[in-house]
Design goal:
The chain is of the alpha/beta class and 228 residues long. The protein has helices at 17-28, 48-53, 68-78, 97-107, 128-131, 153-159, 170-180, 202-205, 212-227; strands at residues 7-13, 35-41, 58-61, 83-88, 113-122, 141-143, 150-152, 185-197. Strands 1, 2, 3, 4, 5, 6, 7 and 8 form an eight-stranded mixed beta sheet that branches. The longest helix is centred in the C-terminal third of the chain and has 16 residues, at 212-227.
C-alpha cells in the first residue's frame, strides 16, 4: 500500500473492555481501505488487553496507568500512517468517516486538519433509571474533539505531543496549541464521530479535576502574552 494513503486510528483505553471491541471494529470497517489500528492499554485491569489482542491492531499495554496524554503519545510513536485520528475506546466511527475527510484533503491540499460534527447517544446497556440521570444526548453539533479530526502527520509534529499529567481537558489543551500555530483547518458538514454517553465517561469519572480546565486556559493566555 502507498504509505501516503495509510491512516492510523489511535485508540487508547483504560478499563474500557465492554466497548473497546466495537470501537476497534468501527475503525476496521471504514470504507477507506488503508487503515492501521493502534491500541494502547493504559494499565487496565478489566481485560481490555485481551479484547485488543483479539483484533488485527498494533497493540501495547502500559505497565501502569499513565494517563490519556501519555497513552496517546505512546500510540503515536507506534503508528506509521500519513494521516492520524484518535478514537476513545467507548466511541465509534461512522463507516465513511475517513473517506469523507480524505476527500476534503484532496479538494484542498493545503489543509492540515479536517474537523466535522459529532453525534451523541446514550449507551443502550445503561439501565433506564441511570440513563435518566445522564445529560441528554446532543444529536449533532460541530466539534474539535480528537475523534472528530483527521490530521496530517506533519501537522501533529508541528503542534507536538499531548500534554501528560492532565486528568481532563487533554484534547482541549492540544487543540488550543494547534489553533495558536495557525494550522489550516476545515470544518465540514458531516457526522464524523458517534460519542457514547454512559456512567463511566472520563468527564464524569474525573469530575473532581475539572479545575484543570482553568489551568489550560491560563497556560494559553500566558503563551499569548509571551509572544506579543
Amino acid at each position: 500500500m502507498p504509505q501516503d494513503e495509510l491512516v492510523s486510528v489511535v485508540i487508547t483505553v483504560y478499563n474500557g473492555a465492554p466497548y473497546l471491541g466495537e470501537a476497534i471494529e468501527s475503525a476496521r470497517a471504514q470504507t477507506w481501505p488503508h487503515v492501521e489500528g493502534v491500541v494502547v492499554d493504559d494499565g487496565s485491569d478489566d481485560g481490555s488487553d485481551e479484547v485488543a489482542r483479539a483484533h488485527d491492531v498494533v497493540f501495547e499495554r502500559l505497565p501502569e496507568r499513565a494517563g490519556i496524554g501519555a497513552a496517546r503519545n505512546r500510540a503515536f510513536a507506534l503508528s506509521s500512517g500519513a494521516y492520524l485520528t484518535f478514537l476513545d475506546a467507548d466511541d465509534r466511527f461512522p463507516p465513511d468517516k475517513l473517506a469523507i475527510q480524505l476527500d476534503e484533503f484532496r479538494r484542498d491540499p493545503t489543509l492540515d486538519v479536517v474537523y466535522g460534527h459529532v453525534s451523541e447517544f446514550v449507551s443502550p446497556d445503561v439501565p433506564a433509571e441511570d440513563a435518566a440521570r445522564i445529560r441528554p444526548a446532543v444529536p449533532r453539533s460541530p466539534s474539535h474533539l480528537a475523534g472528530v479530526m483527521l490530521m496530517r502527520r506533519g501537522a501533529y509534529d508541528r503542534v507536538g505531543p499531548w500534554a501528560e499529567g492532565l486528568k481532563v481537558g487533554t484534547g482541549v489543551e492540544w487543540y488550543m496549541r494547534s489553533a495558536e500555530l495557525g494550522l489550516r483547518t476545515s470544518l465540514i458538514d458531516h457526522v464524523l464521530l458517534e460519542r457514547r454517553l454512559h456512567q463511566a465517561n472520563n468527564g464524569l469519572r474525573e469530575a473532581e479535576h475539572r479545575d484543570q480546565y482553568l489551568s489550560i486556559v491560563k497556560a494559553a493566555l500566558d503563551r499569548r502574552r509571551g509572544s506579543s
